[in-house]
Amino acid sequence: MKLLCLCSALDIQYRFGCTPNWWQFIKGLYELGHDVIAIPYHGTAFETPYWRAYPNPCRLEGQAFATAKRLFGSGPTSTQEGAVAKVSKALIDSWIRPRWERHIAGILEKEKDVDAVIVFTIPVNHFTGIPARLRERYGVPFFYFDGDVPASLPRFGGFASGFRIYDNADLSEYDGFMCNSEGGAQDLLDMGAKRVEPVHWGVDPELYAPLDIEPDRDVFFYGFGAEFREEWVDNMLTIPSRTLTEYSFAVGGRGFDLDLGNTVREGDVPFNVFRQACCRSRINLSITRQAHGTVFASSTIRPFELAAMGCCVVSGRYDGLETWFEMGSEMLMVQSADEAIDTYRRLLGDDAARKAMGQAARRRVLACHTHRQRAEQIAGVIRSL
């Protein structure tokens, strides 16, 4: 198939959580023999061995929007009201959406044999009307992939950004939705989606291959901020680091402006050294935000990345984690700070058990959760139409 993929971003310098995963999905589609054309909604377009690219028609406008949102904390899909929100919405309605529609139409005219368009986590309400009009004009089906369910759903209100991507959106415009959550799929149907298929995160096992290095720290967590997971950061880092003073605790990433006890803040961890940061840690933590942890089988990328690298993974409370991994043999889940302390103490005293768990987790990824397997699911959803 020839697939036109409109992605939230392609450049990982913007540190959008989903961007490395779009790379892996597209690589999987390429490895299956599909012809992928990619366009970023934010940032610059560029080509790789896995996709051809068309330019972002609103690159400068997107940069201006991101700057305004960063400075004023408001945007066209924000829960906040004010001059910036109104101006931004007017800009999207009168300028950005029409330019994107003309751009996509021009690509469909030029390429002629595009089998489907997939929109990867671009705000749905930024494209209102485009799928319906272009499907009628060109006969090309449109699909939407939301990788942020359930946090993106109206009942959760988005992150501190206040983003509400579904306000004033028409989900029935799309021939099908894909999302990372089994428990959140019904919300999308209730909001008007014609059909919804869960497609969970997966990873490229070569990109996340284990590193044979000697671990030099005990417990490590990496993430983009503590928002909506403060309780479990406390249970899994702050309290244990004060109790287990004989062990080293570290956190990487940004947005942890809270009491972390004796945990060392390592700051940002660039993508190219993320694997090294995890593989040099005896225990890696998966601390999921509240929305994902409480809505059944809402996948996040971190457990799959850590498992692929053969890490020993301890997770906080996560409803549905057992959907992807065998609890006890491939991954562990704790329910309290006391249980976390006991688990760390036991694992740090048993090198063989930690290594066996990491090896079992990687075998599970190779068998069930690779980027190519997820690409097969995406292609299957499109073909099933």
Structural summary, described in words:
This protein has 385 residues and is of the alpha/beta class. The protein is built from 12 helices and 13 strands. The protein has a 7-stranded parallel beta sheet with strand order 3-2-1-4-5-6-7. Helix 6 packs across helix 10 and helix 9 crosses helix 11 (351-368). The longest helix has 29 residues, at 83-111. It is globular, with a radius of gyration of 21 Å. Residues 74-80 have low confidence and may be disordered.
Descriptive terms for the model:
385 residues, alpha/beta, Rossmann fold, 7-stranded parallel beta sheet, 6-stranded parallel beta sheet, 12 helices, globular
What is the residue-mean pLDDT, rounded to a whole number? 92
Helix content: 25-40%
Count of extended strands: 13
- Give the biggest beta sheet: 7 strands, parallel
Distance between the termini: 13 Å
CATH topology term of the largest domain: Rossmann fold
The CATH architecture term of the largest domain is: 3-Layer(aba) Sandwich
**Strand line-up across the major sheet:** 3-2-1-4-5-6-7
Coarse structural class? alpha/beta
- CATH C-level class of the largest domain: Alpha Beta
The ordered H/E elements are: EHEEHHEHEEHEEHEEHEHHEEHHH
Strand content: 15-25%
Shape: globular
Poorly predicted segments:
74-80
Distinct helical segment count: 12
Count up the domains.
2
Rg, Cα atoms, Å: 21 Å
